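ok so I'm stuck.
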Amino acid sequence: MTSDTTTPPPAGLTPPIGELLEDLFATLEQRKRDMPEGSYTARLLAGKQDKLLKKIAEESGEVIIAACEHDTAQLRYELGDLLYHMLVVMVREGLTLDDLSAELASRRS
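replied:
not stuck anymore, here's the structure
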């Protein structure tokens, strides 16, 4: 598979992952509160849960394909899509990043 995704910025020019996730999560929560017209996120949050969950399945499959093909650029892109949709599910279901952090921390022992 040939990737047409953009090259990521050089190291040091992107925010730390925690900061980025917190900013993205805050944006998703704001979309849930405001439900702006024309927002893809707002449509996912307001629509049928089944449609959102099907996006998770679709994006998971695309991650698998990119990994199998060793296409790191496409894999990075698809992981971004999957993570975004997973965060939308979290917001929709009332989970927080702290909830996820606590779950992951509990698995480290």
